[in-house]
Amino acid sequence: MRTVLRRPDFRLLFGGLLASMTAESILLLALAVWVKELTGSSGLAGATIFAIIAPMTLAPLVGWIVDRYPRQPLFVAVNLVTATLLTPLFAVRDRTDLWLVYLVAILYGLSYVTLSAVLSGLIRSLVPAELLADANGVLQTVRQGLRLIGPLAGAALYSTAGGGLLTGVAVTGFVTAAVLAGLLRVTEPPWSRPEPRRCVRTRSSPRSAELGAGLRHLADEPALRRALLGYGLGSLVMGFSESLIFAYVDQGLRRDATFVGVLVTVQGAGGLAGGLVSPGVIRRAGEVGALAVGVALFGVAALALSYPNLWLGCTAVLLAGASLPLTMVGLHTLIQRRTPPRLIGRAAAGAEAVVSGPRAVSIGVGALLVGVIDYRLLFVVVSLVTLLAGGYLWGGRRLSRPPQPPPPAGRTQVTQQSWTGAP
């Protein structure tokens, strides 16, 4: 990771992302706490998270828009727009202003999807292929680190200083990200309107063909197809854990629900470790192999949680925490390496929807099942499905060979691509 951090351009981007990721981390829980205080309803507070996730359904459209513009100026613009979208929160005073919080949550969710899609292409333009895993690993390590302190800091900031200061800090974070990203000097190939493929055979309009091009690429590229099928299978049950962990603490450990916060902290420590080791795992096993390891680790953790024991539980959530950056770094790096620049926005947004959709459904299903089925049995089911998904992914690890080391000094490597060129 030190190699990629020595690059001045990436350090500048990293500084901007650190500011915006800090803003993200303090907002998520704080918005729910804000709604809870305004209404007294836990259901309405939880609905803020759903409002942020809901725009994920627009991912194909978002990706299509992202692919129509150069990454760096678009990244700057979206950060500034995000900062502007948060300003209505300054007007929230009582329950009658609740609609403003939900409106901001929805718009913020849309901007989050957009920023993620733009960032994949921007990193691809800034970093050579052999350092993509390191770049993604650095960002995931920081993101996991912020998960340790950001949500609690945001909630504490709201409780002590109110929503106005919280909003001001978040706005400052996104403006800072825009300013630093604006200083980047990115060499991007000239964009030209791509010729839609398969329009005659599918009898679709050119615009609909462009909208679906990212999903078609994900389905046609063997490594990406294997990665999304395996990870999607695991995601169908991974969301169960969001509800099962409360039953584990209550019925298994016989502790108060607030102890979940301790386990979340341990999970965050595991996330830090996973982010640090993920580039090395990719160099040895490839991106699909890293995905396999991450999904399988989650399966091992779920199996351990089926037996209530404090030390075993801490070890389990540590493994679960490490699994997330392994899967995310593996998937993001695979998309960046296997996708033409002109499609990377649509592919990244489409992959996010393919993975997040099943997971969102599984969170709801898990909340229903935990009330009628023993949580230990459900953890065993989660373990079996994720271990099966991990095995399926491991079987396809040769589809994504580990990236080759950079060429020796003095040798010229030509890898320039156009927005319409093949990978």
UniProtKB/TrEMBL annotation:
Keyword Calcium in record: no
InterPro entries found in the cross-reference section: MFS, MFS_dom, MFS_trans_sf
Q: What residue spans carry the region label Disordered?
A: 400-423
- Which keywords are on file for this protein? Cell membrane, Membrane, Transmembrane, Transmembrane helix
How does it sit in the bilayer?
Multi-pass membrane protein
Could you name the domain of life of the organism this protein comes from?
Answer: Bacteria
Q: Name one Pfam family in it.
A: MFS_1
What Gene3D superfamilies does the annotation carry?
MFS general substrate transporter like domains
PANTHER family from the xrefs?
INTEGRAL MEMBRANE EFFLUX PROTEIN-RELATED, MAJOR FACILITATOR SUPERFAMILY ASSOCIATED DOMAIN-CONTAINING PROTEIN
This chain's protein is named: MFS transporter
The chain positions of domain Major facilitator superfamily (MFS) profile read 1-190
Listed Polar residues bias regions: 412-423
Which Gene Ontology molecular-function terms are recorded? transmembrane transporter activity
GO CC terms on record?
A: plasma membrane
Where found, per UniProt? Cell membrane
Q: Which residues cross the membrane?
A: 12-35, 47-66, 98-123, 167-187, 228-247, 259-278, 285-304, 310-335, 347-369, 375-394
